[in-house]
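Following up on my earlier thread - several people asked me to post the actual chain instead of describing it. Fair enough. Here it is, all 270 residues.
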Amino acid sequence: MTRIEELESRISPLGSAIVAFSGGVDSSLVAALTVRALGDRALAVTAVSPALATGELDGACEVARAIGIRHETITTDELAREGYRANGSDRCYHCKTELYDSLFALAERRGYEAVLSGANADDVGDWRPGLRAAAEHGVVHPLLEVGVGKEEVRALARALGVPSADKPASPCLASRVPYGTQVDPVTLRQIDRAELALKQLGYRVLRVRHYGELGRVELAEDELPRALATSEDVIEAVRSAGYSRVEIEARPFQSGSLSMKFAKRLPAAR
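Reply from S.P.:
Thanks for posting it. Predicted structure:
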């Protein structure tokens, strides 16, 4: 049995399923596998909120069309949740609780038997409070359950012709706000404007970390030299979003750096 067949065999008995679909490689692979296994009883659903970066919904729509899965959107209101706005280390728990509450309500109304996520095997060792919310709701994680990590996710996505196979990770805009700093719509819009301005300069893998009046730019290793050589362009782009001070991080961008800093402070498991 091939890896793809193994994954499909995990999904097929479900009968029908909604996929929590961001358009990133993980959820796109799960969506592609689900439509292969369940046909028209598969539905991809993208949550739209102020934390969704500009362009991400368009990208998700394109991926859904390419893989042939039915696609819908819902509006989520995580900002109405105090725990999310407070932006503690468990912010993702409150975000995913809002998402899964909405998806399971939709599943119940439409008669879908399961809700699937794109969590993969590499997520287990990271700080992922969203997985706790998923466990409380009974979300199915085919990639995690079969032991598929990120590198294999991309390889399988390429094998299935998924357009987002090489798409950089793009978590919600709130992930740019340090833990303990309040999350609000104004801040999220400012981050979005700053990152969009940098993308218009041709940068592909980036984050603008929000520190009040300071926007700290993180860029991929292969893009960092150009940014440092043309720093005024980068600074002006971020200032155009309303930041009075701008710094370019000299070290290359590392996905999940804020979460990793927190995870390192956790007591070791006994």
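Confidence is low (pLDDT under 50) at residues 262-270. That should answer part of your original question.
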